[in-house]
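Q&A FORM
Asked by: J.P.
Topic: structure of Spheroidene monooxygenase

PROVIDED:
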Amino acid sequence: MPSPDPVVTLHFWGVPGRAVPGAVLRMATLRPALARTPGLRFAKLLGTGDGRTFTVRDADPRRWGLLAVWDDAAAAGAVDDGPVGASWRRVADEEWSVRLRPLAARGRWSGREPFGSPRPRRWDGPVAAVTRARLVLRRAARFWSAVPPVSAGLHRAPGLRMAVGVGEAPLGLQGTFSVWDSAAALNAFAYDRPEHAAVVARTAREGWYAEELFARLAVLSSRGTVDGVDPLAQPSGSGSGGPTIPAP
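REPLIED BY: S.T.
REPLY: Here is the structure written out as tokens.
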């Protein structure tokens, strides 16, 4: 029977410009190999971007990702040790991966609750936030117009280590992955920043999302680099920047 406490992994692969076509091909062809992986509960191959506007111009064709949820720590090694990781390493010139444990989750992703219903617990180390939204297309323009102030506020947020826009498609399906010094730092951004609070209120009032997810996860370990730096080794407040979908 699957463990009630799954292990979550996120990989980012950076590729040189000449390898972008190969990366796009992998996004289209690696899903069957993932589906056959023992112990895998949920997986999404992801494009990335800076997320300043959540439109096509944000996309970064030189960084790609994989978020996966596993039965346990043993199963979670399948990406590093198996054909999916090996395929990406043939084209990548940089890799960063992180292991996570869900602390809280609300909402759905493609109709599922990928992180389950975590038991409340205290965590004193770094935390990550995963947000994901499927936009109601007729309301997308309002959402896009609201993003820049929130993104600007995030750049100034104390305790941010990194933030990357992620998505399954260039438009309409988007989210963020961010890492924070602590739960307190994440809470301060999510609830104390007026620009973020205003957008959260508009989200509920105007019904921007057809589906939404917000999850908080404990950072267990990481390895590798993003843009030549290990985000978890940086001093507090020196994160790489980026946006966040307003937390539901």
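FOLLOW-UP: The longest strand covers residues 209-224.
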